[in-house]
Amino acid sequence: WDTAYIITNDQGGNVDYYRSMYEALERTGSNVVIDGECMSACTIVAVVVPLNRICVTNRAILGFHGARKRPWGSREKSVYSAEDTERVW
User: Fold this and answer.
1) Which of 2, 26, 47, 60 minimizes the number of CB atoms within 10 Å of its CB?
2) Contact (Cβ atoms closer than 8 angstroms) between residue 48 and residue 40
3) How far apart are the first and last CA of the chain?
């Protein structure tokens, strides 16, 4: 591949942000290389970008877990969210 989006140390974050980002990559036909940590919401790449456009190196580490949510504007600790976990799956 001449060009690719390379993931090396991504700890994840907001699910909607990652889905939008990967959908944009998918529309452009970009390839993705996972060459390090791809944790949490980062792993959504595997369901949005076609697998034939993803290269997973021997250094790749993918981390999956149930989704967590913190009430908007709250400083409370985040809690497990079955609804958001279902959206990720």
Assistant:
1) 2
2) no
3) 29
Cα angle, residue 60 at apex, residues 50 and 8 outer, rounded to 5°: 90
pLDDT tens, 16-66? 899 999 999 999 999 999 999 999 989 999 999 999 999 999 999 999 888
Q: Distance between CA atoms of 22 and 42, rounded to whole angstroms?
A: 9
Question: 89 burial class (0-12, 13-18, 19+ CB within 10 angstroms)?
Answer: exposed
Q: pLDDT tens across 60-87, in order?
A: 999 988 877 777 677 777 888 888 777 6
What one-character-per-residue DSSP string does 23-83 give?
A: HHHHHHT--EEEEEEEEGGGGGHHHHS-GGGEEE-TT-EEE----EE--TT--SPPEE-HH
52, 61, 67, 55: which is closest to 19 by C-alpha? 67
